[in-house]
Amino acid sequence: MLLDPLANALSKINNYEKAGKREVFIFPSSKLIEGVLGVFREEGYIEGFEREGEGLRVRLAGRINRCGAVKPRHSLKKGEYEKWEKRFLPASGLGTIVITSSQGIMSLAKAKERGIGGRLLAYVY
C-alpha cells in the first residue's frame, strides 16, 4: 500500500543509484515529487526527468549517495537553518535540504537567501 508517494519515490531513486542504474521510472507521480526532483536537477544530483503517462522517468547522474524524505515534515523557522543541516546532512556544505514555503519548493540555500521558513520535505547528498 502506498502511504507516502514522496518517500517511496526517493527510496526507489536511492536503490537505483546504489545498483548503478542510469534511469528509474517513478509511479505514481505528483507535483510535489516533480518539485523535489526539480531542486535535485538544479543542484546537479540528477540529469533530468520527464512525465510519461501517470509516472516520471528520471535520468540519474550517479551523484547521489543518499536521499530521503523528512518524516514528520518539521516546520523550519528563519533562524533554524543550521540545526536542520546538522541533523540531516553529513557535513557542512555537503548536500541539500528541500523545503516547501509560501514561495514554492526550493533548496534550503535559497530559503536562507530570501530569509524565509517553511516545512522540510527531503534531503540529498
Explain what this protein looks like in three dimensions.
By secondary structure, the chain is of the alpha+beta class. It folds into 2 domains: 5-60, Ribosomal Protein S8, Chain: A, domain 1, CATH 3.30.1370.30; 67-124, Dna Ligase, domain 1 (2-Layer Sandwich). It is 34% helix and 31% strand. The chain is built from 4 helices and 8 strands, in the order H-E-H-E-E-E-E-H-E-E-H-E. The chain has helices spanning 5-18, 31-43, 81-88, 108-114; strands at 23-26, 46-52, 55-60, 67-69, 75-76, 96-101, 104-107, 118-124. The strands form 2 sheets. Strands 4, 5, 6, 7 and 8 form a 5-stranded antiparallel β-sheet that branches. A 3-stranded antiparallel β-sheet has the order 1-3-2, with helices on one face. It is globular and about 40 Å long. It starts with a helix and ends with a strand.
Keywords, separated by commas or semicolons:
about 120 residues; 8 strands; alpha+beta; Dna Ligase, domain 1; 2 domains
Structurally, the number of domains stands at: 2
Helix and strand composition category: alpha+beta
Question: What series of H and E elements makes up the topology?
Answer: HEHEEEEHEEHE
How many beta-strand runs?
Answer: 8
Helix tally equals 4
CATH C-level class of the largest domain: Alpha Beta
As for the CATH topology of the largest domain, it is Dna Ligase, domain 1
Q: What general outline do the C-alpha atoms trace?
A: globular
- CATH second-level architecture of the largest domain: 2-Layer Sandwich
Mean pLDDT: 96
